[in-house]
Amino acid sequence: MLGISTYPKDMAPSNLKKAAAAGVHAVFTSLQIPEDTPEEFRAGLHTLQQAVRTLDLDVTVDISPATFAKLGLAANDFNGLYAQGFHSIRLDYGFDDAALILKLQRRFTVVLNASTVQADFLTALQTEGVAMHRLVVAHNFYPQPESGLTDAYFTAKNALFKAWEIPLLAFIPGDGLARYPVFAGLPTLEHQRGWNSYAAYLEMTLRYGIARVYVGDSRVSDQSLAWIQRFEKDGVITIPVANPAAALPHEPVPVRRELSPRLIRIQTPRQATAVGPVLARPAGTITMQNDLAGRYHGELDIAKAELPFSPASNYLGTIPTPFLPLLPLIDGRYPVQFTAV
Prior knowledge:
14 strands; MupG_C; TIM Barrel; Outer surface protein; 9 helices; GH
């Protein structure tokens, strides 16, 4: 599931409407950003509350004990928070009482902070009577470059929550508008910083099995949003191609399930193929075997790593560098569709 994020200083109704029109109704926001002035906070909050009513948005709000005063509420006035339209809350530092979480679960979707949750706390929640399957655990995003999570830490932490069958939420960078004040992306994983949202989403979904993937930054590009929604609705991986040849299929095509170390084999019929342009084959090169390949002519391949020059491989196009992270994710589970960029 894809979600987007929006924040008081750059709250844009048009962005929320566009996402809702594309079928994205899950929204994350934070009510504890120090850089928001009181005026920006109030204006952004008003815009968001209007959008919740008119666009049927499901908003998860990041709160701390200081949030209530900013909303004009008494300390820990969760009823007042609910009355303002916030029914899903991510509990930041300061809310680690199992009895409180049990009480909140009666009205709210409770989202825990993955950084603060250990195995003993999960046991305490279960002992208290919390419905574990109704919890969500959300990783942080990391504004400062080099501060995001490592793959190893992320994977190990996720194993704990998956053992408890608790849904996971993680953030990917936005490729439309980076969020203030650092403007360096808001990923959970450091290696995804600077990635386009589409590639980051597919890695979170297909490699890590994250059920809820939210764009942490303030906006996602129209292109990424369309390709993500195509995957969520139709189960098709869009592959962007530069310099596509006419022989490249336009419809979705299956991928062979047998995995090769340096080659993705697209499941197309073998057929006579005249010798055409042949070039070097760096990672991301799409080729079709020509008649010099004998009975293998017509086979369509994508190079996962640099391959030696071959006169039997016609050049059909190149996957641009920003989309090369897609290559390890194409493994036969889903068909692919090539699109010119």
